[in-house]
Every structure is written in structure tokens, then in C-alpha cells.
């Protein structure tokens, strides 16, 4: 069956990344792992070869994140830097933006964060109000963002804003607001960040951002002012696929710890894994993680084949399935360890919080169920 679901090349990639992950493990140093993974070509595996990338796609990039996660050392910024920002710039950036950013994103010397979420818009990204206006050749960006990951370690943040279109003279309709993407370097005047005190044990922090009349040169706008929505969606499918990879990796890590423990821990005559009440939920978790991975592979295959619409549905379903499988696997893993599930020594308890992230971000479980009920099933909209 070699290569039916995954090519031999990708299986080799999986094994090589797993070996890298095993060397770093749970107590990993984020920056050291980031630079080693980059040097080995893993971080830019999806980016075009002519800009220093590996020439692969989301199939390969998701393997890298899943395997690092399964080894206990996920790199959250992979979800945004090469997957969203790298994809958007490779597909829609100007030649200059590609040359400026892609080689660095590929070799890990540059990192880019991604900011769409706003305090007053939340799940409803149609309500975002960060607005860009022209001032001569420059853009002036004003607004607020929340929960943006890794802004402190990123060289720039790709900010989703809106530009005001001219009023339609023919219909007399007022000016509209079109989504658009801006590259905002970290130390740009007026671009302020405040760390959010999250209950998460992770190497990457989340930030609230204030953009107070941030002046940006004309070439900060990525792609076409009139095609912002299309460009945004091109980045959001990779984000969902990578969140699925993140969740599957974490679920596999927790499950492996639980299986180890259940094989050796003996309370009565048998190791606890011999009791079906312990074994079956672990088997179920394994099945559900495998199923989620299959959907993630489908989403990545569709995306890499250029089917953005098909990938949209599959990526949402994969993210949903992976998050649910991860939450269940972590919950069962902690339970399997009994009291040790809550000790610092075994280190599983923080995953209870971490596993919830994939259920909430980048799009919540409920918004995916809304999407599937409207788009896939044709049911009436509730909002
Ligand atoms: C650790 C972490 C990292 C993040 N990193 C980033 C990042 O790098 N960049 C970025 O832009 N964002 C990031 N986010 C933000 C994330 O994408 C949002 O938290 C998410 O989109 C949900 O938005 P919200 O928190 O405002 O929740 P809300 O939109 O307020 O939703 C709250 C609850 O209400 C439910 N709900 C809302 N509307 C409906 C509806 N119509 N029908 C049914 N239920 C509904 C939701 O499902 C949810 O359960 C991150 C979040 C976390 C937790």
C-alpha cells in the first residue's frame, strides 16, 4: 500500500521530522528548534523553489507541524508564518514582496504573524473595522486587534484591514469597505502591542494590538486592493489545515504518553491498559485522530491541486475533526494517568487548556458547524 495515501517521499519527510522532534522533545527551546527546522528546509517546504522554498505544498507543511507536535514540540508560528503569510505573498504579492519575504520565511530568518481577530468583531470577520486610508502614496492604518500570536517574535504582522471604496456614483450607494492585507513591520511607529495574560503554557504569546494612524508605504499592501477577499481566503484554508495538524500532533503526543503509562502501570494484577475501560477510550482516540488526519490529507491534497472551493469545505471539516479528536485524546490521556495526570512531572495537565485552542481558533467549532450546515447541507442561515 506504499504511497496510496502518502507518497514515499512524504513518509520519509514524516520520519525525518519525527527524528528532529525526538531530539528536541517537550522541553524544547522554540528558537533553537525553529532555526534547526528551517535549516533542514522544513519551514519553507510549501514555498516556491525559486524563492528558496521546497516547492511542496500544504501536504508537506502539515506533516512537519504534525510530527513536531507528536514529539511534544509544536511550532505554533508555522500556522501563520509559512502557511498563511507565505502562501498569500507567494500567490498574490508583488515580485518585490516575494523577494523581500519568501526566502527569509523559508530559511527561518524572517517570521510573520497574522492579525485578523478584533475585539468587537470576534468570529464575525465581516465586522472588522481596522481601516486603511490613502495619504498621498502612503497608507494610514487605524484599528485594534486581539489574540494575535507571536507579534513580539515576528518581524512583521500581516494585518487584515479594509479600504474604503469610492461611492458608486451610478447607484448613489455610499462607500463600501473592502478587505485588504497589509504588511506591518514590528517597530512601525503607532503599532503598539500589549501581551495578554493567557492561561496557556506555550512558547508563543498572544497580544492585543493598537494601530494608531500607522503610516505605511504604498508597497505594504499585499496584492490587489480589489481582490482582498479572495487573497484572504487563499491564506485561511492553509491556516485551517495547519491547525488540524497542530491538533493531531498534540493528540498523538498525549495518546502516546497514555499508552506508555497504561502499558507499565500495574495496580491490581494487570497493567491498567489491560482493562477495557482504559484501553477502549484510547483506541477510540487513536481512531478519531487517524480519521481527522485523513480529512486533513484530503484538504491538503485539494488545496495543493488548486481546488480552493473543495479545499475550503475539507479544511473546515478537518480542523473541526482534529480539534474534537485532540480534546478527547488529551482528556483521556490525563485520566489514564490517574493522579499523575495532574502532576508537573508528567506534564500532561497543561495540554487540557492547550487542546481547547484548536476548538476556538482560528474559527470556532460552532462557526464550522454553521458553515457546514449552510454550505454543505443547504440549511437556512441562523444569523
Ligand atoms: C491561543 C490563541 C491564539 C490565537 N492566535 C490568533 C492569531 O495569531 N491571529 C488572529 O487573528 N487571531 C488569533 N486568535 C483568535 C481566534 O481566532 C479567535 O479567538 C476566534 O476566532 C474566536 O473569536 P472570539 O474569541 O472573539 O470569540 P467570539 O466570536 O466572541 O465567540 C465566542 C463563542 O460564541 C460562539 N459563537 C459566535 N458566533 C456564533 C454564531 N453565529 N453561532 C454559534 N455560535 C457562535 C463561538 O463559537 C464561541 O464559542 C487566537 C486565539 C487563541 C485562543
TrEMBL record:
Residues 113-213 form the Acyl-CoA oxidase/dehydrogenase middle domain. It is an enzyme of class 1 (oxidoreductase). It comes from the Bacteria. GO terms for cellular component: cytoplasm. One of its GO terms (molecular function) is acyl-CoA dehydrogenase activity. Residues 228-370 form the Acyl-CoA dehydrogenase/oxidase C-terminal domain. Pfam families: Acyl-CoA_dh_1, Acyl-CoA_dh_M, Acyl-CoA_dh_N. Keywords: FAD, Flavoprotein, Oxidoreductase. Its cofactor is FAD. Its EC number is 1.3.99.-. Residues 23-108 form the Acyl-CoA dehydrogenase/oxidase N-terminal domain. One of its GO terms (biological process) is fatty acid beta-oxidation using acyl-CoA dehydrogenase. PANTHER family: DEHYDROGENASE, PUTATIVE (AFU_ORTHOLOGUE AFUA_7G06510)-RELATED (PTHR48083:SF1), MEDIUM-CHAIN SPECIFIC ACYL-COA DEHYDROGENASE, MITOCHONDRIAL-RELATED (PTHR48083). Belongs to the acyl-CoA dehydrogenase family. This is Acyl-CoA dehydrogenase fadE12.
Amino acid at each position: 500500500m506504499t504511497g496510496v495515501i502518502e507518497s514515499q517521499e512524504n513518509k520519509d519527510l514524516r520520519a525525518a521530522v519525527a527524528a528532529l522532534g525526538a531530539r528536541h522533545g517537550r522541553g524544547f527551546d522554540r528558537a533553537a528548534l525553529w532555526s534547526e527546522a528551517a535549516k533542514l528546509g522544513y519551514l519553507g517546504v510549501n514555498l516556491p523553489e525559486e524563492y528558496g522554498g521546497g516547492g511542496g505544498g500544504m501536504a508537506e507543511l502539515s506533516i512537519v507541524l504534525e510530527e513536531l507536535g507528536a514529539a511534544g514540540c509544536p511550532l505554533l508560528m508555522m500556522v501563520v508564518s509559512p502557511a498563511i503569510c507565505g502562501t498569500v505573498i507567494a500567490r498574490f504579492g508583488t515580485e518585490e514582496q516575494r523577494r523581500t519575504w519568501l526566502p527569509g520565511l523559508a530559511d527561518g530568518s524572517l517570521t510573520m504573524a497574522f492579525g485578523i481577530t478584533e475585539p468587537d468583531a470576534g468570529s464575525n470577520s465581516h465586522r472588522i473595522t481596522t481601516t486603511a486610508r490613502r495619504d498621498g502614496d502612503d497608507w494610514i492604518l487605524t484599528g485594534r486587534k486581539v489574540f494575535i500570536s507571536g507579534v513580539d517574535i515576528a518581524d512583521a504582522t500581516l494585518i487584515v484591514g479594509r479600504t474604503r471604496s469610492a461611492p458608486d456614483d451610478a447607484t448613489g450607494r455610499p462607500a463600501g469597505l473592502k478587505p485588504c492585507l497589509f504588511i506591518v513591520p514590528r517597530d512601525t511607529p503607532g503599532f503598539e502591542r500589549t501581551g495578554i495574560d493567557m492561561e496557556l503554557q506555550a512558547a508563543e504569546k498572544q497580544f492585543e494590538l493598537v494601530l494608531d494612524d500607522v503610516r505605511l508605504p504604498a508597497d505594504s499592501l499585499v496584492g490587489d486592493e480589489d481582490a482582498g477577499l479572495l487573497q484572504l481566503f487563499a491564506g485561511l484554508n492553509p491556516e485551517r489545515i495547519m491547525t488540524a495538524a497542530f491538533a493531531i500532533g498534540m493528540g498523538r503526543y498525549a495518546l502516546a504518553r497514555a499508552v506508555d503509562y497504561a502499558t507499565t502501570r500495574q495496580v491490581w494484577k494487570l497493567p491498567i491498559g489491560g482493562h477495557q475501560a482504559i484501553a477502549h477510550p484510547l483506541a477510540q482516540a487513536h481512531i478519531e485522530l487517524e480519521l481527522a488526519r485523513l480529512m486533513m490529507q484530503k484538504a491538503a491534497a485539494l488545496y495543493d491541486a488548486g481546488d480552493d472551493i473543495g479545499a475550503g469545505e475539507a479544511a473546515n471539516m478537518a480542523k473541526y475533526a482534529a480539534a474534537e479528536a485532540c480534546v478527547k485524546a488529551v482528556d483521556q490521556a490525563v485520566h489514564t494517568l490517574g493522579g499523575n495526570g495532574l502532576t508537573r512531572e508528567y506534564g500532561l495537565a497543561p495540554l487540557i487548556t492547550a487542546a481547547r485552542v484548536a476548538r476556538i481558533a482560528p474559527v470556532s467549532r460552532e462557526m464550522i458547524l454553521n458553515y457546514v450546515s449552510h454550505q454543505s447541507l443547504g440549511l437556512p442561515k441562523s444569523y
